[in-house]
Amino acid sequence: MSETEDSTTEQFKVNEHVVCKRFTGLPRNFKGTIVKVYDHAVLLKLNVKDFTARYQSTLDDLNDKVVIAKKLVVPTPVV
């Protein structure tokens, strides 16, 4: 494994809040909380309050969770 892959893996931690750049069927820049970290992806619990009623059926289909590639996820800055 290269050094860049190591740093990407260590960059994400469970219960960390992140912003996602894009995912099919959902609006851009949605927020979520990491539930599990995989080699090249993360399982996110979506923040349901951030979505309008328009996306409710999509959220129901996904059970408010989604697996998304790490390259599309950005950690939110700690305030």
Care to describe what's here?
The termini are far apart. The chain has a single domain (3-75), classed as SH3 type barrels (Roll), CATH 2.30.30.140. It has 79 residues and is an alpha+beta fold. A hairpin with a 3-residue loop joins strand 2 (30-37) and strand 3. Helices cover 20% and strands 33% of the residues. This is DUF2187 domain-containing protein. It comes from Furfurilactobacillus milii.
Rg calc: 13 Å
Anisotropy-based shape? globular
Low-confidence stretches: 1-6
The strands making up the biggest β-sheet line up spatially as: 4-3-2-1-5
Distance between the termini: 33 Å
Instruction: Give the amount of beta strand, in percent.
Output: 25-35%
Alpha-beta classification: alpha+beta
CATH class: Mainly Beta
Task: Compute the number of helices.
Answer: 2
Q: H/E order of the elements?
A: HEEEHEE
Structural domain count: 1
The helical percent reads 10-25%
How is the CATH topology named?
Answer: SH3 type barrels
Named CATH architecture: Roll
Largest beta-sheet characterization: 5 strands, antiparallel
